[in-house]
Amino acid sequence: MGPMRTAARVSSQALRNPFFPFASSLPARATAAACEMFANATKRYGKPEFGLPETTTDGETVPIVEEVALERPFGDLLRFRRDSAKVETRNDPKVLLAAPMSGHYATLLRGTAQAMIPEHDVYITDWKDARDIPMSEGEFDLSDYIDYLIEFLRFLAADGERAALMAVCQPGVPCLCAASLMAENNDPARPSALIVMGCPIDARISETEPNRLAKSRPIEWFEQNVIVTVPWPNQGFMRRVYPGFLQLSGFMAMNVDRHVDAHMEHFQHLVAGDGDSAAAHRKFYDEYLAVMDLTAEFYLQTVKKVFQDYALAKGAFMHRDHLVKPVEIRDIALFAIEGEVDDITGLGQSKAALDLCCNLPDDKKQYFMQPKVGHYGIFNGSRWRNHIQPRVRNFVRAHRASVAD
Q1: Which DSSP string corresponds to 70-108?
Q2: pLDDT of residue 113
Q3: How does DSSP classify residue 190?
Q4: What is the CB neighbour count within 10 angstroms for residue 369?
Q5: Which residues of 283-293 are buried (b: 16+ CB within 10 A; e: fewer)?
Q6: What single DSSP character describes residue 291?
Q7: Taking residues 239-268, what's their average pLDDT?
């Protein structure tokens, strides 16, 4: 599609050139708009930037410096460091945001991080696109994901304080597994608190369309029909992956009418020369259409263990050769958060974590359901900022703990 995309871009620019005598005519505007729509629909969207240059803490505008605290082959530990000596004296709690590995990049949690940064030392799991990881780095499965979380938590606890762990959507299961394993081993770096937000802890509850799709066919069907090999010249040449565009097409199919309407409106804005509305559309879809490939082994294990076997909910989840036991969690505070109209992770699926951790005292458990909020509204938008995030902030602070505790 590359040559055709280039031709479409050149044509769009030529038709809009003020020296073109018919640039203001309806046919020229419509053709230019169609060319731009084609170019945008076929281009390869790269990883978006977090784009968080500054924040406000104690009334002071503070620069934010993105820095890689720990680099690993399949994902880095990224820190949003507030570059201010005054902020360093606040001794804010550390929070590790576990970003979903479900097709989109960690930038999906931009709004989540932005609301947490003013009062927390925020880190995030910045997962890498599998098509860009050479075969020489080996495989990456669900157990490796858990191991990465444990390694990151140990790194953050090096200064003596246990970090809080926030799981948004898909990472809920591996985060609960990591916490359970660390609790069983009395690991001094175990998280002080675990927040699960819209997570499929027990996907049998309030089944949604993605849940039904995952169990509609045997795992062999998924392996044969949605797993492909990365082509040359990508760095991950020959790696078996689940392509991000397939996951994206599934999400878009759930709301196909809304996306079609949005693109029709975009076309009309381009024809009319409404630059502000067209720019807003581009900004949203540049983020939404930027997807990453997942390693085949991680994707297939997630489908099988989480959405077909319900292994964690049934007490049968194995991390390598070891049974994961949430009952071992006794001092890791647990907060389950859900949206009333979540169509990705049904109501009650996150709350199930509280029942699995039956040996955790009630004063370390909390549940909150945000009315009239869907999946993305749990961790992005005004309700996240005004209603959910303040509760998370208070919960994290109430359960701070050191490695000596």
Answers
A1: E--SSEEEEEEEE--HHHHTT-PPEEEEE---SSB-GGG
A2: 96
A3: S
A4: 16
A5: eebebbbbbbb
A6: B
A7: 61
Residue 356 token pair: 């699995």
- Check residue 244 and give its pLDDT: 82
Of 75, 77, 62, 215, the C-alpha closest to 133 is 75
The residue among 220, 394, 405, 206 whose CA lies nearest residue 303 is: 220
- Cα of 300 vs its chain's centroid, Å: 18
Strand order, beta sheet including 228-229: 228-229, 240-242, 294-295
**What value does the mean pLDDT take over residues 198-216?**
93
User: Which has more confidence, 271 or 229?
Assistant: 229
* Site of tokens 């020489």: 136
Residue with tokens 């500054």: 54
For the domain spanning 54-218+294-402, the CATH number is 3.40.50.1820
Mean pLDDT of 389-400: 97
Q: Check whether 5 has a pLDDT greater than 90.
A: no
By residue count, the chain amounts to: 405
> Which 3 state secondary structure label does DSSP give 311?
coil
Q: List the chain domain ranges.
A: 1-43, 54-218+294-402
The DSSP secondary structure of 126-189, one letter per residue, reads EEPPGGGS-GGG----HHHHHHHHHHHHHHHGGGSEEPEEEEESTTHHHHHHHHHHHHHTT-TT
Q: Which helix (H) or strand (E) element contains residue 61?
A: strand 60-70
State the pLDDT at residue 220: 96
124: burial class by Cβ within 10 Å (0-12, 13-18, 19+)?
buried
| pLDDT tens per residue across span 280-307 | 545 555 565 778 899 999 999 999 999 9
